[in-house]
């Protein structure tokens, strides 16, 4: 990573159109990933995910009441069949992070069923946020 690159740019994987894998977007900025969410090793959470699945770190996703937020994006093939991103909030423990990584490795939205335990974290962002994010 060069000194003028943002951390998320160094992690972004480039794959041919139509072959983009399922990946996670981790919110880090305003509330997510800060001391406003105490008791979480935020750096370790990203490192753990990055070891296992494609990760992109995002600036504030504007759903701070759900910090820490992770969005699981379907692969290009799954999206073509109608799969949509899944928004997960309050992801503040290592077990949830591992459940997300396992689901993404299995194929994620539209390919593998969402583990029942992750239903506790799923939320629908406001329409304004979905529109801004293209969801």
How much of the sequence lies in strands comes to 5-15%
Shape descriptor: globular
> What is the N-to-C succession of helices and strands?
HEHEEHEHEH
**Which class best fits the helix and strand makeup?**
alpha+beta
The overall pLDDT, averaged over residues, is: 85
The major sheet is characterized as: 5 strands, mixed
**Low-confidence segments:** 1-18
The number of distinct structural domains comes to 1
- Per DSSP, the total helix count is 5
Radius of gyration from the CA trace? 14 Å
> Whole-Å distance between the termini?
30 Å
Instruction: Please count the beta strands (DSSP E, at least 2 residues each).
Output: 5
> Taking strands numbered 1, 2, ... along the chain, how are they ordered across the largest sheet?
2-1-3-4-5
Q: Considering DSSP H and I runs of 4 or more, what fraction of the residues is helical? A: 25-40%
Properties at a glance:
135 residues, alpha+beta, 5-stranded mixed β-sheet, 5 helices, 5 strands, 30% helix
Notes on the structure:
There is one protein chain. The protein is of the alpha+beta class. It has one domain (32-133). It has 5 helices and 5 strands, in the order H-E-H-E-E-H-E-H-E-H. The protein has helices at residues 7-11, 42-52, 76-80, 94-106, 127-133; strands spanning 23-27, 55-58, 70-73, 86-88, 122-123. The protein has a 5-stranded mixed β-sheet with strand order 2-1-3-4-5. Strand 1, helix 2 and strand 2 form a beta-alpha-beta unit. The radius of gyration is 14 Å and the shape is globular.
């Amino acid at each position: 990573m060069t000194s003028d690159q943002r951390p998320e740019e160094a992690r972004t994987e480039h794959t041919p159109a139509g072959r983009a894998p399922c990946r996670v977007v981790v919110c880090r900025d305003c509330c997510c990933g800060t001391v406003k969410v105490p008791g979480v090793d935020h750096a370790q959470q990203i490192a753990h995910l990055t070891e296992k699945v494609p990760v992109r770190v995002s600036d504030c996703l504007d759903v701070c009441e759900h910090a820490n937020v992770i969005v699981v994006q379907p692969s290009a093939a799954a999206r073509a069949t109608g799969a949509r991103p899944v928004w997960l909030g309050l992801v503040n423990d290592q077990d949830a992070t591992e459940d997300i990584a396992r689901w993404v490795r299995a194929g994620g939205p539209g390919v593998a069923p969402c583990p029942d335990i992750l239903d506790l974290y799923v939320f629908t962002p406001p329409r304004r946020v979905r529109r801004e994010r293209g969801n």
